[in-house]
Amino acid sequence: MKPLAVFLSLIGGGLYAQTSVQERLNDYPTAARADYVFACMAVNGQSRQVLGQCSCSIDVIASILPYDKYVEAETVLSLQQTGGERMSMFRSAAMPRAFVADLRRAQAEAEIVCF
Q: What is the spatial distance between Cα 61 and Cα 104, in angstroms, rounded to a whole number?
């Protein structure tokens, strides 16, 4: 292989790897990020400082937890708040608890980093 071809393939491979990391870290839709920040600010206060901290928090969570896992955990949390026997499986089954535990760990890391 010619040196120029090797150089171009290395650059192309590096750009591909960088893109996939960026895509992984930015797979949360804007509406989901805004919803998180809005709820976070409702709990922590309505100041500019809290806006920055809440934005940081969702960024940290997004860097740890892929969006599909975030949605699964949020869905389980929502279903756990619903009453009735049908929803009891979301409170006691191991898999739904694991989804929530992963989210809680990501939230704890975000709190340490951002608040």
A: 10
